[in-house]
Each structure stands twice: as structure tokens, then as C-alpha cells.
Amino acid sequence: MDKSSSQRLPPLKRTWWLKHRFFKLYMLREATVLPLVFFTLCLLAGMVALLQGADSWQGWIAFMGSPIVLLLNLVALAASLFHAATFFVLFPRVMPIRIAGHSLPDQAIVAGQWAGVVVVALLFFWLLGRGA
Amino acid sequence: MSTDQITAKRVSTNSASTKHISVKRYLPDTSTETYWQEYDLPVDDSTSLLDALNHIKEQLDSTLSYRWSCRMAICGSCGVMVNGIPKLGCKTFLRDYEGDIRIEPLSHFPVQRDLVVDMAIFLEHLAAVKPYLIGDNPVKPYDPKAPETYQQTPEQLARYKQFANCINCGLCYSACPQFGLNPEFLGPAALTLAHRYNLDSRDNGKKARMAELNRHDGVWSCTFVGFCSKVCPKHVDPAAAVNQGKVEAAKHTLIALFKG
Ligand code: SF4
Ligand code: FES
């Protein structure tokens, strides 16, 4: 009997990722890009509005303040924090940091990254406070 | 500990009960269709899935085909899917399962018969990454006064040791949806093996391996699903190796760009 003709390999279905919790979590991580796309488009619209003059800038501010846009951007914030959380855990595995021949513990690298987020956020709020 | 306790303990470990497992059968010489077959078997706390399959083969149904050899998680030949998750039969214990136990051949490989899959493509991928020392010190005539060939410090060993623990069981390939979608993807174990040699202080073959690694079917097909590292029975963490490989591949591209 011909060996290859007797073999069986059903193709992977498009729904493969629905099979385990692990794959669903992975898809969720990848899907966080969608609300972020929305946020990026908002920023882009803001730039265009700024170039077009005061009226459209005011219009953009009103648009950003509308409840549905606020909600969508809150979702984008939550999504990016979730993505950051998953990314930060993966980072030490991709870029193990070795100092004097010893590798830095993973938790230290993860903590360092979150500290970076806090620093950037504080800097941002400080700038915002000065601007107001 | 008194003898009483020991006896009591022994009775409990040996307390035999019955468990029900379903095995996906495929017998190409009788039918092209697969079917589920049910077996009831006596188990105790020490019954591994491999013990269970051996019991079926010896006592219940000699037509069942599956692979095994070492029964101690070192030969890598007993991989099967248990309730949809790739596992080594000899490292999986029935005491950890309540209810349904469904056994299938490893996913993403062509099935030859019952639980036996064709791993040819996996072996081709392993060979493709040149998994051996390249351009290491040529073997010199042994000089007892200066025995320096192949010396390696513990730190140098530590860099790749984890990635050298792979037993080529292929569980990570069954866990990898990218390999399932595209069998040309070199896959977790092969890319890990390449990285293991690239990290070896005795090796000078990184450049030679880059042609294989730094292409779509090499490291760049990986999207860091990460399930390979979850199922690996040897804690090799192939996902980490593959993604460290991406960093290396990107560096390689950049350097080539500057050199023109
Ligand atoms: S990396 Fe782990 S799961 Fe993959 S073949 Fe090697 S031992 Fe098996
Ligand atoms: S029989 Fe060798 S790894 Fe399971």
C-alpha cells in the first residue's frame, strides 16, 4: 500500500483558537490592537483638526468628550494595559538580561517595566498640570 | 512511622479502580474513517497513560498501535493528545483525570495508524538548521600539557543548557497553530535547537544558520502564541528561544544592511 495515500491529516479549521482557554487568551491579546487603532485614528483626526483651524479643533474636542468616544477610548486604555501586562511578562524571556555572567530574575525585569510605565504616566500628568 | 501506617499507605496507593478512556482509532487498511473506541481499565495511583495503553494492547485489544520506548520521559516517542493537549504518555498519570479521557494522535502531523504519526517533516526541520558545532576548534592532536580543546566555563554552559534539554518529542509542534497552518514553518524545537548552537561558545556557525532562520518560514512565522512552552515536558521554553532568535535575525539583517 502506498504510504502517503493512507495517511490522514485533516486541515486546521479557522476556529482552531476556540479549542482552549490558552488560545482564546492569545487571541484576546492580539485583538487589543483593534481599540488601539480607533484611538490612533482619533489622534490623527485631532492633528488634522489642529491644522484646519480653531473651529474644527473645538469640534474635535467636543467629539472626544462625547460619551461613546470616551467609552471606546477607555476600552482602548484597558486593552493597552492588558497588552502591556502580557508583553512585560514575555519580555525577559525574549531579552534575558545578564549582568556579570548572572541573569537578572524575570520578576525584576517585569517590575522595572511597570516602574517605567509609572514614571512616564507621572511625567505626562505633570506636563498636563503645567499646561492647564 | 509505624508498620500500620506503612501498610495503610500501601493499601491506598494500590487501591485499584476502573477508568474509562476513549482512543481515536484509524486503521487505513480497513477504513479511511476514524472512530472512537472505548476501553475500561483497572488503574491505581501509579498508572500512567502509557501503562494504560500497554494494558489495552496486552489484555484487551492487540490491534491498537502507538509508540513508546523509554517509559521515563527521555526518548520522546510516546506523545499523544490527551483531551486536546499534547502530552507524553509516560509522564501523564490517569489519577490526574476525572471524567472524560480522550486520547488522539499528535495534532498537525499526518496520522499513519491509530496513535502513530509521521514525524518526517519534523526531522527534516531539525536537520535543516545545522544542529551541530560549526567551525569549532579542529581536533588537535591531544597534548596533555595543554588540554584546552572544547573548554567551556559554567557560565558559558548556562547560556544554552536549558535549550539543550529537548528530547525531540514534537509536543510543541502539536501545540503550535502556526505549524498547524503551515507545515513548512521550521517550528519551535528546530528553531530552539538552532538557537542552542548559536549560543554555544564553541560554535561559529551562526552566519551559516541565519539563511534558514531569517526568513518567513523561519523565526518570522512565530507570533508568540507561547503554548509550545506550556506543553514542553522538559521546560525547554522553545517560545523564548524562537523569540530570542528573532532578535538575532533582526541584528543580522541590520548588520548586513550596513555592510552593504
Ligand atoms: S522543545 Fe520541548 S516539546 Fe518541543 S520537542 Fe523539545 S522537549 Fe518536546
Ligand atoms: S516512552 Fe520515552 S518519552 Fe515516553
TrEMBL record, chain A:
Q: Which GO terms describe its cellular component?
A: membrane
InterPro entries per the record?
A: Fumarate_red_C, SQR/QFR_C/D
**Protein's UniProt keywords contain Ribosomal protein:** no
Under the heading Pfam families, the entry gives: Fumarate_red_C (PF02300)
Record-annotated membrane-spanning stretches: 69-91, 111-129
Q: Which UniProt keywords apply?
A: Cell membrane, Membrane, Transmembrane, Transmembrane helix
Q: Give the range the annotation lists for the signal sequence.
A: none
Full protein name? Fumarate reductase subunit C
Gene that encodes it = frdC
From TrEMBL, chain B:
Q: Tell me which cofactor or cofactors this protein depends on.
A: [3Fe-4S] cluster; [4Fe-4S] cluster; [2Fe-2S] cluster
* Textual note on the cofactor: Binds 1 [3Fe-4S] cluster. Binds 1 [4Fe-4S] cluster.
Q: Which GO terms describe its molecular function?
A: 2 iron, 2 sulfur cluster binding; 3 iron, 4 sulfur cluster binding; 4 iron, 4 sulfur cluster binding; electron transfer activity; metal ion binding; succinate dehydrogenase (quinone) activity
Q: Domain 4Fe-4S ferredoxin-type spans what residues?
A: 156-186
The broad enzyme category this protein falls into is: oxidoreductase
The protein's matches in Pfam families, at most eight in alphabetical order, are given as: Fer2_3, Fer4_8
**Which residue ranges does the record assign to the 2Fe-2S ferredoxin-type domain?**
21-109
Q: Which reaction equations make up its catalytic activity? A: a menaquinone + succinate = a menaquinol + fumarate
Q: What Gene3D superfamilies would the database entry show?
A: 3.10.20.30, Alpha-helical ferredoxin (1.10.1060.10)
User: What does the record give as its pathway?
Assistant: Carbohydrate metabolism; tricarboxylic acid cycle; fumarate from succinate (bacterial route): step 1/1
Q: What's the Enzyme Commission number for this chain?
A: 1.3.5.1
On whether Chaperone is a keyword of this UniProt record, the answer is no
Please verify whether the record's keywords include Cell inner membrane.
no
The lineage's top-level taxon is Bacteria
Q: Name the residues that span the membrane.
A: none
Q: Which UniProt keywords apply?
A: 2Fe-2S, 3Fe-4S, 4Fe-4S, Iron, Iron-sulfur, Metal-binding, Oxidoreductase, Tricarboxylic acid cycle
Q: Which GO terms describe its biological process?
A: respiratory electron transport chain; tricarboxylic acid cycle
Q: What InterPro entries does the entry give? A: 2Fe-2S_ferredoxin-like_sf (IPR036010), 2Fe-2S_ferredoxin-type (IPR001041), 2Fe2S_fd_BS (IPR006058), 4Fe4S_Fe-S-bd (IPR017896), 4Fe4S_Fe_S_CS (IPR017900), Beta-grasp_dom_sf (IPR012675), Helical_ferredxn (IPR009051), SDH/FRD_Iron-Sulfur (IPR050573)
What protein family is recorded?
Belongs to the succinate dehydrogenase/fumarate reductase iron-sulfur protein family.
Return the protein name.
Answer: Fumarate reductase iron-sulfur subunit
The organism is: Halovibrio variabilis
